[in-house]
Design a protein that fits this description.
Order of helices and strands: HEEEHEEHEEEHEEHH
Distance between the termini: 63 Å
Number of strands: 10
Structural class: alpha+beta
Oligomer: single chain
Largest sheet: 8 strands, antiparallel
Length: 240
């Protein structure tokens, strides 16, 4: 048996074990019938737009259109309570697009459209991806996921992350595991996807542009916005 065959066999076995553990945890979590909301925003959902600055450095909001979005279907319609999309233009830097999609529906079926799925669905091919740690301040480091994607007419690069409860899952099974762990505590977590994208000639320029935008944005966030993006580590819980 070749080394490749052994590696493939081990990978398949690990996937099978992880899938079995996840399935078992999901079954136990479902039997617990979680009903306690675990949300980072107040019970009465505030509008998301006021939580984010309209001007970041020398970037300024221009429009809410032009972003790559998940294909509309019945599933995506029930994924999010609130979505904001913004296109920021700058006289000295490349444009940056921001998407924030929040889910606080307490039905125990939390899902998040990851760009690895919605970009190919929009006609893009993902060419490169890796993780970039993002310093959010206050000791919080976010595992930013960098992707470079290309379509017939456009080359786009993005950094995104997802938060579910207090976790930042970086794989689909970790995403479901984060939900299952909260369900085992009798809680239904909320979740958010945050994505920043640009269209640069190369990865180095894209990463530099996105970091140049994200850093001052993080500094401008209110405690409520930090809690939305980073969980309880981002800001203390609001007093009742």
């Amino acid at each position: 048996m070749s080394g490749d065959d052994v590696d493939q066999k081990l990978l398949s076995r690990r996937s099978l074990i992880a899938g079995g553990l996840l399935l078992g945890a999901a079954g136990i979590a479902n039997s617990r019938r979680p009903d306690e909301p675990f949300k980072m925003l107040p019970e009465k959902l505030p509008k998301l737009n006021p939580l984010f600055p309209w001007k970041v450095g020398d970037w300024e909001y221009q429009t809410s259109s032009g972003l790559v979005l998940p294909p509309p279907d019945q599933l995506s319609d029930r994924l999010y309570n609130a979505i904001i999309t913004r296109y920021y233009a700058s006289p000295t830097n490349l444009p940056v697009m921001m998407l924030v999609a929040y889910n606080g529906v307490q039905d125990g079926m939390l899902q998040v459209h990851r760009p690895e799925v919605c970009y190919p669905a929009a006609g893009y091919q993902v060419e490169r991806d890796h993780f970039i740690p993002l310093d959010a301040g206050g000791g919080v480091v976010v595992p930013g996921h960098y992707l470079a994607a290309r379509s017939v007419s456009r080359h786009e690069q993005l950094i995104y992350w997802t938060r579910i409860g207090n976790e930042f899952p970086v794989q689909w099974w970790r995403q479901h595991w984060a939900v299952a762990k909260e369900n085992l505590k009798g809680r239904v977590p909320d979740g958010v996807l945050i994505r920043f994208s640009t269209a640069a000639p190369d990865d180095e320029t894209a990463i530099r542009t996105l970091k140049r935008f994200i850093t001052p944005l993080f500094r401008a966030l209110s405690p409520t916005a930090r809690r939305l993006l980073f969980g309880e580590a981002g800001a203390p819980a609001p007093r009742a």
